[in-house]
Specification:
Blueprint: H1 12-22, E1 33-37, H2 43-53, E2 59-63, H3 78-88, E3 96-99, H4 105-118, E4 125-129, H5 135-145, E5 150-154, H6 160-167, H7 170-189, H8 200-211
Parallel strand pairs: 1-2, 1-4, 2-3, 4-5
Helix pairs in contact: 1-7, 1-8, 2-3, 4-5, 5-7, 7-8
Length: 220
């Protein structure tokens, strides 16, 4: 039987809270570079291509090697498959750089910065394109590791229900939301990201979902 792709009614409220919290709600605005952060989700590349065609940035970097959750889907590496998908969406090859070694968000940021430097590009602003629930963590990480740039965040537009249906696995989406929430304060404490406000309703939603057993993405 395939994984369930619908939200349990009793969990909708806390999942909605975390979903809305991680969306930075940034309006589209032109920047110097669009950075597609590698993951299991090809919609990151789709969104990056769409924003490029809308004229929001002239240069793209796709960054990402592989993780246990992506090697089956993207055997040649996340950035490589993202690039191929963008090319299929009529993004010119000359507009794309690929960074194929990063294995976490911090490395996505620092290795993208270094790659751009080797190509003589020193942006003053970047758009980070990610999964919807990765926006806040990506923003906080970039602000810590690349403080010289103005950061905007974007994701493929989707409602929570549509996103769960597109992934096809409710438990996976909820577990990732819970894990990314924990990383907001944990990574700030460890110096990997700038602190972010965490309202009481976010803490309460996080605790409720942890108690419900969505703990597979938590850091011990």
């Amino acid at each position: 039987m395939p994984p369930d792709a619908s939200l349990p009614t009793m969990l909708r409220s806390p999942v909605d809270v975390l979903w809305n919290y991680h969306d930075m709600h940034h309006d589209p605005h032109p920047t110097d570079v669009g950075v597609g952060l590698g993951s299991h989700d090809l919609s990151v590349a789709t969104c990056t291509a769409t924003l490029y065609h809308q004229g929001l940035f002239p240069q793209i970097v796709f960054t990402g090697a592989n993780a246990p959750t992506t090697i089956g889907t993207f055997p040649r590496g996340e950035a490589v498959h993202y690039r191929e998908h963008a090319l299929s969406l009529n993004v010119p090859d000359s507009a794309i750089l690929t960074e194929t070694t990063a294995r976490n968000t911090g490395e996505n940021i620092t290795r993208t910065r270094d790659l751009l430097t080797t190509h003589g590009i020193t942006p003053s602003s970047v758009t980070l394109i990610s999964r919807p629930y990765q926006q806040r963590r990506a923003y906080a990480t970039c602000r810590r590791l690349w403080p010289d740039v103005t950061v905007r965040c974007a994701s493929q537009p989707a409602t929570l229900d549509d996103y769960v249906a597109s992934i096809g696995n409710t438990d996976r989406v909820i577990s990732m939301l819970v894990g990314d929430t924990q990383r907001i304060w944990l990574y700030a404490e460890r110096g990997h990201a700038i602190p972010q406000p965490v309202p009481d309703d976010v803490h309460n939603a996080y605790r409720e979902l942890v108690a419900a057993g969505y703990t597979s993405r938590l850091i011990a």
